[in-house]
């Protein structure tokens, strides 16, 4: 597996990474999420050796990553990393050769991946003449053309239309199903939730949560839709914490009460139209997890 073990990095007075630790298992899609400047790109650049860590270590299969291992990693930077005036096919073949493929294998790989990602008709065009979405497809082709053992992708879905998103999603799932560890960053949290086996959330250079989306959901929260209840009807219930309240809808966390106790109280407050478990989306989990350290620091 790919292990990021306690890496730290400082730029002048800015602590960009503070003992960041997580692992990506073989065959796993790992979503790496955080706000701009949280440390995602810095972490990925350290994995690739573009930057060196001040402390900590990156390991692959239990051994420190060296230049030979990095040649077997497929990397897609957030910024366009392609030569704009070079033709798509020539560029991809050149990159495949740099990774050690022979001429015939490189040409075959270029044909395979440009067809798979829907840019085979642009293979003789200069990169700068492509739309941003097609440039993104070519960028992913460059990360895949040498059949990498690990994939590290920085915002791979940026600028893609819905059809291209589905194509790229299928490719990443196929690579993971073949045993490749795949880590990618994205601000599209609904997409991360749908695709990823596990998620890591980074804030202020620190990992604040790692796990499946279900593991990041804590407590038992019920959603209740009641018509015309009196204000604060759930506030005094024993073993209940009100998570959110809006006209007609209340979300409560059960800290000791049973769901039947809460249902009886809701029925006493008014007609109940919905009562059942609430599964907060990753967007809400992200907001709550990232806000928690900030609140703690402000209180201190």
UniProtKB/TrEMBL annotation:
Q: Which GO terms describe its molecular function?
A: ATP binding; ATP hydrolysis activity
Domain of life where this protein originates: Bacteria
Q: Which PROSITE patterns match?
A: ABC_TRANSPORTER_1, ABC_TRANSPORTER_2
Q: Where is the ABC transporter domain?
A: 2-229
Q: Which Pfam families match?
A: ABC_tran
Q: Which family does it belong to?
A: Belongs to the ABC transporter superfamily.
- What organism is the protein native to? Pseudonocardia dioxanivorans (strain ATCC 55486 / DSM 44775 / JCM 13855 / CB1190)
Q: Does the keyword Cell cycle apply?
A: no
The enzyme class is hydrolase
What EC number(s) is this enzyme filed under? 3.6.3.17
Q: What is this protein called?
A: Monosaccharide-transporting ATPase
User: What sections of the protein cross the membrane?
Assistant: none
Q: Keyword annotations for this protein?
A: ATP-binding, Hydrolase, Nucleotide-binding, Transport
